[in-house]
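Entry 14. Structure prediction run on the chain below.
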Amino acid sequence: MERSDGNLKQILAIFFSTPAIGTDGTIYLVSGNLYAIKPNGKLKWELKLGTLAVSSPVIASDGTIYVGTLGENEANEDVSYLYAISTDGKIKWKSKVSGRILSSPAIATDGTIYAGSTVSFYAVNPNGTLKWRIDIGEGVISTPAVSQDGTVYVGSDGLYAVEPTGKIKWKFETRNGIFSSPAISSDGTIYVADGGNIFDKKQKEEKNKNICAIDADGKLKWKYTTNSSAIVSSPAIPKGGTVYIGGTDGHDVLYAIDLSVG
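Output returned:
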């Protein structure tokens, strides 16, 4: 990467998240700082966030970049912040969140930002004001998915369907916690893996994690039992009737499941 003056610069940081790319090709990468990098590799700007971020930045239709960070207060309690940042690197607002933000936010068509922490699940208005907050299971460590009708699907100790008002529609019980993010197909089916909470030793050691297909009413359509001890990646559903998801059974494994069979 190069600085704006053309000199090479190395970013001395550890990155846990995936970059996001704006409509103009700008690449956004976050660690303890948020970096905006031009397509030619030159640094556009750098914003110090103060604490580590392990979730990926998300870009709204107006170009606003949303990212969550980790942190602690003076009492050593977990306190995170959800940031809204403009395309020129200025902080528009930041919202305090209890617990740790380990997953990326999701943005609904009305601009609502949904973000989970190890304590609660939040809906935040585009201006940074809190819309609602609810406690879900054992906290949220997976990125939520928003369906076309506005229902928000999020994993915790099971899969939850949450209305835009914050009311829980239903919960689908899974054998293990959900670490990866759910995926929604064009027919409204939700695909999720009960891959286990990798911070839970018992769940981490158990094998035979399941990949589940669930309808919009919270009913199981089918499940596929793997030999994996952990599934922390999210399902991918390209056109063609196959769902792909990665796991591990001591070795990395890629599963390809025919949706017509399950």
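Residues 17 and 241 are 28 Å apart (CA to CA).
Filed with the rest of this week's runs.
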